[in-house]
Write a structure and sequence with these properties.
Number of helices: 7
Strand content: under 5%
Order of helices and strands: HHHHHHH
Number of domains: 1
Shape: elongated
Number of strands: 0
Structural class: mainly alpha
Radius of gyration: 22 Å
Amino acid sequence: MFADVPSRGDSLGALAQRFQLHGKDPTASLLNSRFLLSAGEVLFSTAVSTVAVLALTGYLLAGLPELRAGALRLIPRSRRPRVGLLSDEILRRIGGFLLGNVITSLAAGVSLFVFLTVVGVPDAAFLGLLVALFDLIPIVGAIVAGAVATLFALAVSLPVAIATAVFLLVFRLFEDYALSPRIMKRTVDVSPLLTVIAVLVGGSLLGIVGGLLAVPAAAALDLVRKEVLLPRQDAL
């Protein structure tokens, strides 16, 4: 069905040969080298963003108790117990969001690993791990990792690369509009429709940061609506 599969150690060499990095045409070799250099810069930038987001998340989780205690001091004493309960529930939902994000990222990595193994792309485990890690970054993470996986598949053959790109596109749509909303419903208690709208709006307004904060912010606002605004409206 597919072309002969190169061994694990020859995958990068096959990719370089396909892009004619060692060819006789110096112009084509230069253009292809610049393309791969640009792709490497994007990959490096996304990797730095991934590490930064993970580090920021770790620092935020470590400092949440102090931030919560300091914020409660700004609230009148009579209202602190009620606000404290709401803040605890918001923090629980933030933890649920992080758990749901990890689950969807693992699903993306495992699915790609299985697919690449079936079609015979070398380094399938590495590429699956790469997609799982980069999928933690909203909007651009999965796209960059998917592009890298497609390039590795191109070392096998063009049909395999096309099949990989189609698989990644279909799975991304499935993850964004079916898998992730349902997981967030269970872990964050936010409706699937609100999850999709929040990610689209947050990503459009603030990019990666907006996509990352969209679901926790939507969960917090939805909680305030249910526990504060609606009871007040019902009491009128």
